[in-house]
Amino acid sequence: MTVKVGILGAGYIGGVHARNLRRDERATLVGVADIRPEAAQRLAGEVGTRALPDLGALLHEGAQAVYVTTPNAHHVDPVLAALGAGVHVFSEKPMATTLEGARQIAAAASRSKGRYQLGFNRRWAPAYAFVRALIASGELRPAMAHVKMNRGELQSPPWVSTTALTGGFLYESTIHLLDMCRFLLGDIAAVLCRARTTAYQEPDGFAAILRCASGALVTFHSCAHATWIFPFERIELFGPHQAVVTEEMERVSMSPGLGREIAVRDFFQLPMEEKWGYRLEDRKFLDAILGGEPPAVTAEDGLRATELVEACYRSARGGTEVALPLA
C-alpha cells in the first residue's frame, strides 16, 4: 500500500521532505503547492509531480497526507483544514506561533481520523538519539546541563527576520533545542529568562535557566547574530562525575567517570538528511499512517514546546520566573 502525499510549501525544507518521500516506495507524491507558482513548478519538476496552487488542489488530487512546510505563522490554518478533512498531517515546526493556535491544533488532532506529526527532526538525529539512549539506559544520569542554540544571522531566507512570519526568533530555530531539553531531561517546571535586542528589530539574544521537574537545572543560551562559527548548537550534560557533550549533530564526546577513558563518536560522514534526522522522521510518519503506530512526535509534544517558548518570552518581558504548564 502507498500513501498519496502532497507538499504545501516549496521552500528549502519542503524540498528536503519531498526528496525523502520520492525515495520511499510507500509514498506517492500527488503534487507540490505554493503561493509562488515558480517555486511549486521548480520543486514539482525535480521530484516528478504536479505543481498546484493550494491545499484545496492537493486534496482534490486525492492527497491522503499533507506536509505543511510553509513559513511558521502560516501553519495553523492549513493544518486545521487538513485535519478537519480527515487527512494525515506532517507539520514543520513550530506547531504554531501562538499558544492559542497550538491548543487549537492539539484539539483538532485529538478529534481527527488523520495522524498529526510535528517536525522536530533533531529527535531522530543519530547524535541526539545516542545521547537519549545513554540516559534511558541509566549510563548517564544528568543533573545539570548547558545548552546553546545560535544562528549566524536572520538574513537567509529573507523572511526569517520578519516577526510576523516567524513568530519571533525563539520560534524559528531555538525551539528545536528547547524541545531537545524536554526530550532528554523530561518536562520543564519553570523558566527564568532575560533577553536583549542587538542586531535586529526584535529580541535576538536570550539567556535562561530552566528548572526541570526531575530537579535537573539547565542554563540555556540563544543568539541570532552569532555568525556560523562551529558549533552553532551544543549540549553539555553533567551527571555524578560524568559529562557528555554534543557538537551540532557531528560529534558526541563522553567522559563516563573519573579515571575512565573519554569516548568520541563521530557522525560527520553521514548524509545530511540522515545526520539531521529528516530521513527517519519521514519514515516514522509513514509508519504511523500505514502501521497504526502513534506519531513519532505528537501534538502534545508540540504544545509543550510552544508553552516553553511562550514562557521564555513572558519571563523576559516580566522579569520573573514563569511556571509550566501555562494556564
TrEMBL record:
Gfo/Idh/MocA-like oxidoreductase N-terminal domain segment(s): 3-120
Domain of life of the source: Bacteria
GO MF annotations in UniProt: nucleotide binding
Domain Gfo/Idh/MocA-like oxidoreductase C-terminal: 133-324
Pfam family, one: GFO_IDH_MocA_C
Family stated for the protein in its record: Belongs to the Gfo/Idh/MocA family.
Protein name (record): Gfo/Idh/MocA family oxidoreductase
Organism: Candidatus Segetimicrobium genomatis
Lineage, top ranks: Bacteria, Bacillati, Candidatus Sysuimicrobiota, Candidatus Sysuimicrobiia, Candidatus Sysuimicrobiales
